Amino acid sequence: MKLLDGGQAPNPRRVRIFLAEKGIEVPLEPVDMGALGHKEEVVTKHNPLQRLPVLVLDDGSALTESVAICRYFEELHPEPPLMGVDPLDRARVEMWQRRMEMNLLLFVANTFRHAHPAMATWEVPQIKEFSEANRPRAQETLRWLNEELADREFIAGDRYTIADITAMIAVDFTKPARIDIPEGLDNLMDWYGRVKARPSAKA
Amino acid sequence: MKLLDGGQAPNPRRVRIFLAEKGIEVPLEPVDMGALGHKEEVVTKHNPLQRLPVLVLDDGSALTESVAICRYFEELHPEPPLMGVDPLDRARVEMWQRRMEMNLLLFVANTFRHAHPAMATWEVPQIKEFSEANRPRAQETLRWLNEELADREFIAGDRYTIADITAMIAVDFTKPARIDIPEGLDNLMDWYGRVKARPSAKA
Asked: Is the CB of residue A95 less than 8 Å away from at least one CB of chain B?
């Protein structure tokens, strides 16, 4: 198998960090998203949606969607568990992963894509008002997360999970999106320091 | 356990249809979303994000996010399988579920929420231009889906899965969103007829 990879974009990073936490090595085939390589045949033939990453399996079939790719590796290599350890725990991790995705990463991405000049050919039409509407929503989620993190070490509980990966990447992404992290979110910043200090964060 | 339910809104329907397919009965506690009941304490104490549905467990803890609730029931009651039968199949079903969610249901919901007068107090600010930008994206996904359905019976393969539930609800939702389904999508309409004919579609 090989992973068609997209560099520093959020979704390719999600999968690489997941693999690093698992200690799994998969051959990477870099695609230059800055040069719109994800719109080329090398990606499109595997994923008509022209998104990265794409896991190409040995039979030539492809798996897309970062979380689906992660789930495949979670099942093949259960240790260390990053998606829960029993039915209720797995559901809770999925709940938190989705909350971080739909209520944080998506808000940050919307803020970025609808305002940043580099996205003008990606997000057509760019709607500045929509970017501005998403910024305070992302900040509101960060404030809520700060409260949630008062009594636990990681997003979904006392164990590092895929929810931490999604949330860390969303917080990283606030910088290019020009979203200020509200002052005084000490629990959040402590958590962020913890997850950024893991070797996987550089994957 | 009990399920805080939200009537005909897409997410509450997703979970009820999933339960109907499984033949699982869970006591429902209706919440009137039209009267903004999901902003009241009965929901907020379980889900600060004020979204429905919410599964309240016997220990008083809560599970939110439709797909996470579905996964919990999938693990407790594996038959009939609605989320895949082996690691690769589970990943493929998740891929299709997510494609239907992010590239169809979300586009339809954005079209609806940013234009419909009934959503003026829900989606603040409503941005008409964003609604209009999402309509052709939803139609493009429908065209692609029509091609995909040329050689298989259901969204993720030859078996009905959670991806069909998400997609069916998205297609249902095109009507209030005032999205015309492009002419000539015969495979899509055949599939839609099949899934709408299942007793679960009325749940």
From this structure: yes
Hey, what's the torsion of the CAs at B171, B176, B182, B187, to 10 degrees? 20
The whole-model pTM stands at: 0.97
pLDDT at A147 > cutoff 90:
yes
- Which two three-digit tokens encode residue B103? 């590239």
Quickly list H helices, chain B. Answer: 10-22, 41-44, 66-76, 87-100, 106-113, 128-148, 162-173, 186-196
Q: Which chain B residue's Cα is nearest to A75?
A: B87
**Do A71 and B91 form a contact (C-beta atoms < 8 A)?**
yes
Nearest residue of chain B to residue A86 (CA atoms): B75
Interface pTM (ipTM) of the complex?
A: 0.96
The number of helix segments (H) and strand segments (E) in chain B equals: 8, 4
Contact B94 A49 (CB under 8 A): no
Contact B75 A90 (CB under 8 A): yes
Mean pLDDT throughout A58-83?
Answer: 97
Q: Please indicate if any CB of chain B lies within 8 Å of the CB of A51.
A: no
Domain A87-202 indexed as CATH 1.20.1050.10: yes
Domain residue limits, chain B: 2-76, 87-202
Scanning every residue of chain A, which has its alpha carbon at the shortest distance from the alpha carbon of B129?
A127
- The pLDDT tens digits of the residues spanning A101-128 come to 999 999 999 999 999 999 998 899 999 9
* Residue showing tokens 């039979």: A59
Write out chain B residues lying below 8 Å of A88, CB-based. Answer: 57, 63, 72
Q: Do A71 and B88 touch (CB under 8 A)?
A: no
CATH of segment(s) B2-76: 3.40.30.10
